[in-house]
Amino acid sequence: MSSIAVIPARSGSKRIPRKNVKTIAGLPAIAYPIRLAIDSGIFERVIVTTDDKSIADISISLGAEVPFIRSSILSNDFAGTVDVVSDVASFLIKNKEKVDYICCIYPVTPLLRVHRLQEAFELVVNGNWDFVLPAIEFTTPIERGFKKTIFGSIELVNPEYMSTRTQDISKTFHDAGQFYFGKTEAWIHKKPILGGNSTFLELSKYEVLDVDDIEDWAFLEQIIEFNKDKDIGD
């Protein structure tokens, strides 16, 4: 049984330029998932798929492999994660390399911990799932959501829930956007990650931060430094 980690790191980040190799708490962002994957002890190889030679050079210096430069077609704003990882899986198959499981780890995930990858690996192997991913509970019931009409007034999305007590509404989760651990055949056949044969690990709110802009980046650095001071490990 073999498994590899694949880290997608294209050059074209719009909201935060050069996001994947931008320095965060003294290290390029991509250093965190590369080191994490290596330290987990569950991957035979850590592969970075990128369209950028400088990102490739940085990744190699950190201990990852870059066996090929990703095509421009799979590096635009519309290329999906499944397509990108499937591309790596196809490359391995063409080179007669047998891989049973592939874990796609996003490059800006410094809050991710080794034991989460190990837990996901155990689940995907022993539970016979196509994919295992980390998820976090919505902080408030989505059933209580509302939107603004064209007239500016409030329109309830699910008005039937407005009289239901919060504690009586089932928990709802969303993708934490950190990694997807799946069977190679599921990646090759491009099965839906959020499909019927997937499951998730529930993370705490302290393990997840969606980094969309410079303010998020600054806050993330503060969290990392705080964790270092508190000696929070894996």
Q: Mind explaining what this structure looks like?
A:
This protein is of the alpha/beta class and 234 residues long. The chain has one domain (3-136, 174-229): Spore Coat Polysaccharide Biosynthesis Protein SpsA, Chain A. Helix content is 29%, strand content 20%. The chain has helices at 31-40, 53-61, 81-94, 114-126, 184-188, 214-229; strands at 3-8, 23-24, 27-28, 45-49, 101-105, 131-137, 146-148, 154-156, 173-175, 179-183, 198-202. Strands 1, 4, 5, 6, 9, 10 and 11 form a seven-stranded mixed beta sheet that branches. A hairpin with a 2-residue loop joins β2 and β3. α1 (31-40) packs across α4 (114-126). The longest helix has 16 residues, at 214-229.
* CATH level-4 homologous superfamily: Spore Coat Polysaccharide Biosynthesis Protein SpsA, Chain A
The unreliable regions are: none
* Molecular shape: globular
In which range does the helix fraction lie? 25-40%
* Percent range for β-strand residues: 15-25%
Q: State the domain count.
A: 1
Reported for the largest beta sheet, the result is: 7 strands, mixed
- Mean pLDDT over the residues: 92
User: If classified by CATH, what would the architecture be?
Assistant: Alpha-Beta Complex
Cα-atom radius of gyration: 19 Å
CATH topology: Spore Coat Polysaccharide Biosynthesis Protein SpsA, Chain A
Produce a short descriptive summary:
By secondary structure, the chain is an alpha/beta fold. The chain is built from 6 helices and 11 strands.
